[in-house]
């Protein structure tokens, strides 16, 4: 790409966005791996089998490839906003073409997945001993990361680029040589089809697509509307993964002959864990996409009201997990419903500390929430104590809201979206 | 020469900012004036290649900004009103990128930072700077190389007294070197005497007032009227 500006942009993005995204992603994967190790001594072996299949002449197949595609796309989607934010602004006037901007960003997003690729590369030899199978699996990992980066980075023609990129990420994880070849071709096709980086600022595109707000709508719903706009399709993703514990409980109940007491316990545990996961994911997304709005704090509204609005938003979005738990065992609904206000208020409080913590809002919510729902699952009456503690949780969250340093800049969690002081405002 | 040919642009289809506008910005200072929200900054973004026109073309020295992207932008320097630099890079890292893309030695970064008084803040994220310092950072980027087309959106806003004088002296040097300088400013006095022509945005077009009255009082009165959208 002579004269396109690609080398300079690639160097810049690798040094800046890629570095930051890797710093964010490395502890996430390390924590996930650590939790997995705690879950069982055979975790490494089981995970390696799940991802790469057994060591035989035939490749792993669809299940492992699907998981590899999911984690690489997830990692790329996490890294891409950090690398790509503001690429439609001032930087576009520099002498580089739109394709070079997009390709450099994609390279940085792929490089940011290095911790994940290395982790998976360590796992592969655990189950794969045949050199040809191991080589195909190891070669497939960076290819999947690259294809996932092509999927995640914005382009002028996402409808043409994303399907082949996704297919390439999937095929790259199958561990078969013909599939690897097809994945490389599909990734190339995705790159060619993607075109340049889309022109225009995010704000302009948003205005053009008519998402700029209904002026006549009630101000009462404004905080919720802001949160929904900030979350966008991330909300669907939160439900997809957040409801997995409930699905596991449902399968456990369906495939085992259990006493009513055990069914109730499984429903409370599955539903409660799902609610906590939903709270953690939505709060984390809000912490990143809708950071504190300094100017709004000058308006005549109390810290308690702001925290209450967030708790209501989080709690109402976690409530479907309780409804689903009640579908498994009607008796599970009451203790979980009693616990939910406390959990939602604690989550609203965790949102206020997210920028200071390496684990963001999700780490705090998961650490506290999972223990508490486990306690409620075993001892349903404990939910009453949580309901009684809700006012205290509200006061603590409001105090955190008051003590927030909203003007402080912390790079690790801040994506600048929605920040009126931010560099992406133009 | 910056040239807009039948340029059309709208954030909302029902409210076009430009509708088939033609405009030529030759060497010299062109002052872009008008009411808030009339489309001055949008016109600057179109000329800078930050926004792409919905219709028509934007050319720099005969090169289409969106077909010959690299060549057309090679001599372009843009100082936006909102300094939208990535917060994840230090100011020095951003300026080094500009040097590489403009083919300038990276040693120019230190001189540019010294000129705007940010030498001690080179390692900071732009998010850690005040608004005035952020504007100085993008100004430092504009100083790198020898841009032939300079687009300045409210260049004196949030600047301290010394920095204002430095910016005006730099603009004088650009004008003496035959650079095309397009300035959006609500402060008319510093630019009235320097301006070769004035442009405004009204009714989707870009009316040009060239030449401006020679008499300083008449000239300022005309610019005042244009700035009020009259």
Offer a few descriptive terms:
heterodimer, A: 426 residues, mainly alpha, globular, B: 230 residues, alpha/beta, 6-stranded mixed sheet, 8 helices
Describe this structure in words.
The complex is a heterodimer of chains A (426) and B (230). With 426 residues, chain A is mainly alpha-helical. In chain A, 72% of the residues lie in helices and 0% in strands. Chain A contains 17 helices and no strands. Chain A has helices spanning 6-39, 43-52, 62-84, 98-112, 114-127, 131-152, 158-172, 177-194, 202-208, 222-231, 234-242, 244-254, 260-289, 303-328, 333-353, 360-378, 382-403. The two termini of chain A are 29 Å apart. Chain B is built from eight helices and ten strands. A six-stranded mixed β-sheet of chain B has the order 6-7-8-3-9-10, with helices on both faces. In chain B, strand 1 (2-12) and strand 2 (15-25) form a beta hairpin. The two termini of chain B are 28 Å apart. The chains are: A mainly alpha (426), B alpha/beta (230). The interface between A and B is large, with 45 and 43 residues.
